[in-house]
Every structure is written in structure tokens, then in C-alpha cells.
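User: Working on a comparison across species. This one is Y-family DNA polymerase from Spirosoma foliorum. Can you predict its structure so I can line it up against the others?
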Amino acid sequence: MVALVDANSFYASCHQIFRPDLEGKPIIVLSNRDGNVVARSKEAKELGIKMGQAFFETKELVNEKQVVVFSSNYELYGDISARMMSVLTQFAPDVEVYSIDEAFLQLEDYTGVYPTYKGLGQAIRTSIRQWLRLPVGVGVGPTKTLAKVANRLAKIKPECHGVCVLETQADIDEALWGFPVEELWGVGGRSASKLKREGIRTAYQLRDVNDDWIRGAMTVNGLRLVHELRGLSCKLLEVNQPPRKSICTEPGFGKVIPDLDNILDALTTHLSRVCEKLRKQESLCGAVTVWLRTDPHRRTPGNGLPAKQYSTSVTVRLPHPTSSTLEIIRYAESGVKAIFKFGYNYLRVGIMLTDLVPADYRQVGVFTKGPDERLIRLSQVMDKVNKRYGHDTLRMASQMYNPEWPMKQKYLSPRYTTRWEDILEVK
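Assistant: Here's the predicted structure for Y-family DNA polymerase from Spirosoma foliorum:
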């Protein structure tokens, strides 16, 4: 059996841990630079605030309903997440951290202490609530997909009291009978539309389709999904997370920018962060993709008509994989210069590192001997200095260090658990 433990409205709940006066109040959390809504409490969802909605579109409702607003506080979320995962390892040694707020647990051979899976789920839920003040839902099923279904039901059915167990075939049939196919794990919008056109609207109907038909309609991934719904495990727990296959970021400027120099400055700043992540997972990248976007909501001053839009990207392949910020910046800048057009007001620059290989990968080419080892070591030294003394203590000379580029966090809460000066005081 597999359990899925998922925190309820994780970002909003992290703020409620240290602000019990916010219990029962609508809360929203904003994205980098306070642009969009990225998390909502249950009360905020009931007000109709949508995930991804632009913050300026919600301001009237925020003022009217006294919605509490927070900027993203990733330092706080990361620490609370680490504490939650640490608690879970006390119940099962095999834990797959699936995301910052959810994890799968392998439960075989651990029912001796807890006679039932329901009792084990309640113990997990109670411990996390007592030790972290964090509300979670627990779903248990024979496969990861059925555990996902159970977790969803645990959150929406009050009679489950936060824990849903799909142990018998009758339990599974009842759970899948009315479960919408579009809410299944791994079913996207296009696949859901395709299934509905064929008259398949519930997970129960999808489970009983023909194998050859589902393979043709949704490839082998669809076939795995159907087998998981039948109780055949096709997605094993990944206790040791594999390195990421790509690293991506697309921060906004906070205001529109028309000139190339400022865009290159922002590119250097954000690419330095991405390269730090690349070296942290001990990888080299073989290609870098950059793109530029204008603001789709912008109106032309004066006449109020929609402003002209421009969005394009380019991928630059490196002559050899490297993790040196100095080398990658050179190729990324050439890409931005190639796609930049005058006359547009840009809102975002995007960066994606792909073709990732292990850090010890070396391949001598016809025209190159490999990456410059001195530059790689220099970047590693910069990482150590910046980790000890703070971001950008050592930085590229081409980086103008515009204070506008870092995240805009007007509604930032204290880092209660990671900064001495932010620790709560009892008087």
C-alpha cells in the first residue's frame, strides 16, 4: 500500500502557523514580484479568487473582503516542508518527496504498530498538526494513482476526517464511480477533452477501457494510468530523486523595459541564479534557451488600445557541456541579442538550461578539447563565497546590480524559523 500525504493550501497554511489570528480568514500568496496569485486558503477560494489570477484584478475584492495578502516567502516554505518530510520518515523509511507539500510513503510491513491504515493515517495527520500546526490530508491506496484519488477524497469529503483508505475492491469501485476523469493524476486538459468525446467521464469508465484503444489514444502513459486504476503498480516510489533534466526560470522585470542593456543586465542576474542550481545538482548543460516576452495586458498610453506584442525564443547549443557561469552567459547574451527587436516594451526574459549531463562528463570534439576547467572551478569558488556571505557578494562585472531585478516582496512575512532576528518573542 502507498500513502500520499499532502498539506492543505500549503503556502497559506505556513503563514497561519505563526499567525493563529488568521484562522478562518481568506489568504492569498503572490508570485515573484507580487504579480499573480499562486496560493489561496479555502476561504479565498470560496470568494472566487482564481489560481494564477493577476493581483491587480483582485485588489477591489481584497479590499472589500479584507483578504490577507502575502508575498512568496520561499525560505519559510522550504524550512516547513523539510520539517514535514522529517516527521514522515518517522512513520515509514521509504518516502518520496514529490513536491514541496506532498510526499508518497511505502507502507508495507508497518501496520503492526498501527492495526489499520486508517489509524496510521490519523496518527500521521495528528502528529503533523500537533508538531507543526500544519493541516494535511492522507490518502492510502494500492498504487500511487489510487493514493492520489484517495487523498483528493480525503480533502473534499468531511466524513473522511482527513484520511481516506481504498483497501478493498468495493472501496476502489465506489471512489472511482463518480471521480471526474479530468481530476485524475496525469490527465491534462486535451486528454480529458478527448476522453469525454468518447463518452468517458469518470475514472470508473476509464479503468475498464480496452488496452489497445487507450494506448492509441494516450500512448503508453495512458495505459500505465489505466493499469494503476486497476490496482497494478506501474509507478514505483522514487526515494532517491533523480537530477532534473532541465532548469528554467522566467522572472518578470516588474516594469516594461524597452532597451537591450537593461535586459542583458537582468539576464546576467537571473542566469547566475540558474547556474548555481545547475552546479548544486552537479550537472553540466549542453544548451541554453532564452526568450523575450512583452506584456499581454499592456495598453497603449493615450488611446488605450492593446499594445503591440512580441514573443520569441532561440536555443544556443554549446560546443561542450559546462557549468561555468562565464561561459553560459556569453552564449545566452548572443541569443538575446539575436532575438531582440527595437520598438517593443519587454516584460520578461526567460532562461532554460537543457541537455544536462553529470558533472564528470567530458567528451573531446574535433574543434574543442572540452570545457575550461579553470572557469568551472572559479564558479564553484564564487558559490562558496556567496553561500557564506550572501547572494552577489561576488558577481559578474557585466552585472550592473540593479536593485529592481531581485524579487519584489512588498507583503513579505518574517522568516520565523531561519533568521535569528525574525524569531518570535514571548513577552
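For your comparison, note: The two ends are 47 Å apart (CA to CA).

User: Helpful, thanks.
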